[in-house]
Amino acid sequence: MKMSSMMLKTEHETPAEAELTSHRLLLRSGMIRQLASGIYGLTPLGWRALQRIATMAREEMNRIEGQEVLLPLVHPASIWRETGRYHTVDESLSRFQDRGGQDLVLAMTHEEAVTDMARHVIESHRQLPMMVYQIQTKFRDEARPRGGLIRLREFIMKDAYSFHADEGDLDAYYEKVKKAYVAFYTRCGIDVLQVNSDTGMMGGGVAHEFMMLAECGEDTLLLCDACHRATNREVYQVCGGDETRCLQCGEPVRAVRGIEVGNIFQLGSQYSLPMHASFTDSSGVRRPVVMGCYGIGISRMLACVIEANHDAAGIIWPESVAPYAAHLVTVGTSSEVIAVAERVYASLADHVLWDDRDASAGRKFQDADLLGMPKRLTISPRSLAAGGIELRSRRTGAVQIVPVQDMVAP
Q1: pTM for this entry
Q2: FRET label pair with 45: which of 9, 255, 376, 383, CA 20 to 30 Å apart?
Q3: What CATH number should be reported for the domain whose range is 324-406?
Q4: Crossing angle of the two packed helices 167-188 and 44-63, in degrees rounded to 10
Q5: How far apart are alpha carbons 223 and 221 in whole angstroms?
């Protein structure tokens, strides 16, 4: 893609409203634009990075036999009344009526909708276990949106739901999901902790959060260096525990801050029982299906990857998330420079962003560091005289000259 024709505008002034590093860099790089409080649009660069994150989430869910679905954003209030959540969830659930006076909600989560699907499909124990997932927009009317993509009202989430014949099968599958989540976060270039958490509005018996340690995080985690248990402080407050001692071994704990990047729950029959989602077991008895649910904030992950991968000059994308593998910079307008650039651009096709703008070399290099592609390719009279194209690693700063023929298709 050529920058001269891209929907992109970079900024080199720090936005006053942005407190978090990721928010500042997303705005300065032109990857997001705020439309309203907690509601952002993504420009092509931001959308490409987000799509790469979504693809990795999709691949990890497919590896544990997930089946991708798409559930509606608008739900009839009737299914939320079946579970009781229509009246128990606070104002963050947006309720409205259509022109016919039917009560509707904007989905902030999809347990009711997926359970409705399951109760019309699952009939026998032979169909279990089963897991479906989606990558879908949700709307939660947050009272205090903050941090750019960290806490939004409209956001993109990967949510998955598993169905089982009994608790033992759910326990075994729950461990598979944990491993899939760790693989996903590793591929995205961030380190996470698995944290014991409160089930909150989701209900059920067991819950874990995946937390990226960060000083800007909203959650306080209590870590035990003796038994390596990590627990959200909220759990100590639901059970009245001593916040200076580990709930598991009694040894001292230390407090750190973190950003939640995913959560998983053992729901049991919390939703299947009131919604009559059941199956016939091997003895011919009807039983409620046992459920688990598993979420990853895809749009939040875009911010978290930047929180974990940046320097003073800008973003440092991991190769797995970068919108483009390389950023091509041309210096000068000589016919030789442009001819070589055209060959490299044609050869690398969709893997390169070419800064072909009529701008100074200094501005181009600043923007290359700000946008953070893993490699910068500079073609200039100086590089050609030295033997080819200057290749610079964004992460290490290492520079080498690569012959032109190594960069173009034969």
Answers
A1: 0.95
A2: 383
A3: 3.40.50.800
A4: 140
A5: 6
Could you check whether 3-311 and 324-406 share the same CATH topology?
no
Query: What is d(CA 225, CA 235) in angstroms, rounded to the nearest whole number?
Result: 18
Considering the domain 3-311 in this protein, what is its CATH number?
Answer: 3.30.930.10
Provide the strand spans (E) within 140-253.
154-164, 193-196, 206-213, 219-223, 230-232
Dump pLDDT digits (tens) for 36-65: 999 999 999 999 999 999 999 999 999 999
Half-sphere CA count of 310, side-chain side, radius 13 A: 21
Alpha helix positions (H), 189-282:
233-239, 272-275
Asked whether residue 410 carries a pLDDT value surpassing 90, the answer given is no
Lowest mean pLDDT segment, chosen from 249-253, 264-268, 343-347: 249-253
Task: Provide the pLDDT for residue 235.
Answer: 82
Q: Distance from CA of residue 85 to its chain's centroid?
A: 26
Task: Provide, rounded to the nearest whole percent, the portion of the chain with pLDDT above 70.
Answer: 98
d(CA 343, CA 389): 12
pLDDT of the residue at 205: 73
**pLDDT tens column, 388-397:** 999 999 999 9
| Distances 173 to 119, 165, 177, 388 between C-alpha atoms, Å | 20, 12, 6, 53
DSSP letter, residue 15 = P
Q: Is the pLDDT of residue 15 over 90?
A: no
Helix (H) or strand (E) holding 378: strand 375-379
Strands 206-213 and 219-223: unpaired
Residue 23: partners with Cβ closer than 8 Å, 6 or more residues away:
15, 147, 148, 149, 150, 303
Domain boundaries defined on the chain? 3-311, 324-406
